[in-house]
Structures are given as structure tokens and as C-alpha cells.
Amino acid sequence: MRDKKLEEMRQDYENVKIPAQLRERVEAGIRQAKEETQMKKKSKVMVYTGRVLGGAAAAMLVITVMANSGAAIAYAMAKIPVIGAIAEVVTFREYESSENNMEADIKIPEVSVKNEDGTVNEETTQKINKSIQEYTDEIIAQYEADVKAAGENEGHLDVKLDYSVITDSDRLFSIRFDQLLVMASGTQMVKIYHIDKQTGEMIDLGGLFKEGADYVTAVSENIKKQMKERMAADESLVYWVDNEDMAEWNFESIKEDNTFYVNENGKLTIVFDEYEVAPGYMGSVEFEIPTEIVQDLVQEGFLK
User: Fold this and answer.
1) Which residues, in sequence order, are bridge partners of residue 268?
2) 146-182 confidence digits (pLDDT tens)
3) How many CB atoms lie within 10 A of CB 89?
4) β pairing state of 185-196 and 201-203
5) d(CA 66, CA 69)
């Protein structure tokens, strides 16, 4: 029954009537969701990864993204309170644009990383802000290209930014950016930057673990277990796991630099963008990993 339901959802998705050019972007976005190492390319095309429903009515498009350049940038140099022992958001900038029913209102934080003696860690500070700039420049460039392509036609485009400090523990500082794309239906994406307060350096998922630790296998197997348990408990939930009819969609393993954060309970939480491990209606999905699964693999101080 579940396989039949999943196949019906897949057919519904494949039968959606969308322009050929947009379909190519949708399909490209789904494929690229499997390749985190191609994030820069993905951040450009995933703007179009929503499931577009058929019909002549204009669809409302809402994209939550980051940006760092383009027309009408207002600088809000207000001082933000210190949010970590060696990491802080020091300023933010705001990108604003409005024309032909296409709007953007995007706030971009600037992060400062300090050494234990209070001096600025120039290397890490420049690295994290450069990463944000490159990431956001691509997305805003795509937005501006869409505005230009729309010409005098109304594009129904609304771009916003949302960011938050999601982790600020003794060992880890993490700032999270959420992107939301709604085009009749919605697509969610998440980008998180992490700083190890002990070293003052940016880290990815592998940076949490001891050298040589096989965290990929341990975490992946637990996620598969959770997927099956969730589906058994709730028939409305569907994850792509161990499905013989859709083997090419099945989740096999996390990436070594998979998106993650440490939640308020001190638990490692793995994050997947929409379409990565489940149908689009599931949105962005997360899995909290029990500490006992990784406690012998993780470095001291990152988890509780």
C-alpha cells in the first residue's frame, strides 16, 4: 500500500505541467541536492526546485535567500550584542528591491571571530564572510536575472532573508540561514556555518569527530532506522529508504560534510533539504542522533 501511494505521488509530480526550461531547472536541482560538494552550483539552480502546479492562475513565489550585492543595498551598521565567547555578529546589511511585482528584502549578517585574548581572528573572520558573500552573490544574481527576464511582465517574486544563531555553546558557534521557495508548492533549503571556539576555525560535520572515526556509517544507519520507525508510526510520512521500486531515489548515506547543527539539548541533528531524502511535501527534514550512537566517535565538548 505504501509503495502504491508513493508511486502515485511520484506520478503526480512527474505529470505537473511546467515550462520546459523550468522543468530542466527543477530536475537539475533535485539531482544536485544529492551532491553537497557542488553547493555553489546548487545554490543557483535550487531556487527553482519547487513543484510547480499546472493551471493558468499566477502562482505566488516566496524565496528566503541570502544576498550580498546588487541594486539598492541599505547598510544597517547597528551594533549587535556579542553572542559567543569568540564569535559575534557585528553588523548587518539589507538588500531591498521592488519592481514588476518582484520584491526583495534581505538582511545579511557579518560575523567577527575573536581569539581568546580578544583580538580579531582575521583568517577565520575573512573566511566565513567570504563564504557567505560567494553563496549569496550567486543567489542574488539569479534573482536579478529573473527580474530582467520577466521584463514588463509581473513575476510574482518575493525574496526574504532569515538567519539565526542556532548554537552557541562552550565549544561551538553556529549561524543558520533558512531558504524557502514557494511556487504553488514550496521548497526549503538550509545553510549553516560553524565555528569551533576551541580552535577559532570554521568546521564542517567531520570536524566534530575524532580523526579516522567512521561517523558516516554510524549516523547513516541510525537515520535509516529512524526513517522506518517514523513511517511505521505515521502512514502520512514517506522517506526514500529500502524501496525496490524506486532504488535510484533511496537514501544510502549522509555526506561527510552533510548539513547539521547541535540542538538545544546538545544532540547532533542532521538536516536534509527538500527532495533530498523524501518527497517535496515533507519539506526540509531533520534527524536527531542519539548521543550513544556517536559518543565514542565525537570530540569532547561538542555534544552532551
Assistant:
1) 262
2) 788 888 777 677 777 778 899 999 899 999 998 776 5
3) 18
4) antiparallel
5) 10
Q: Are strands 157-160 and 61-64 parallel, antiparallel or unpaired?
A: parallel
For residue 231, give the amino acid letter: M
Specify which residues 102 forms β-bridges with. Answer: 99, 157
The candidate with the shortest Cα–Cα distance to 76, out of 95, 62, 61, 58, is 95
In single-letter form, the type of residue at position 210 comes to: K
* 143 close to 62: Cβ distance less than 8 angstroms: no
DSSP 114: B
**Helices assigned H by DSSP within the chain:** 2-14, 20-32, 39-45, 122-150, 215-233, 291-294
Distance CA 67, CA 123 (A): 22
**CB half-sphere exposure, 87, CA atoms < 13 A:** 29
H-run or E-run covering 84: none
How wide is the angle at C-alpha 232 spanned by C-alphas 35 and 12, nearest 5°?
Answer: 55
CB 272 within 8 A of CB 279: no
Write out pLDDT tens, residues 49-81. 232 223 222 222 222 233 333 334 333 333 343
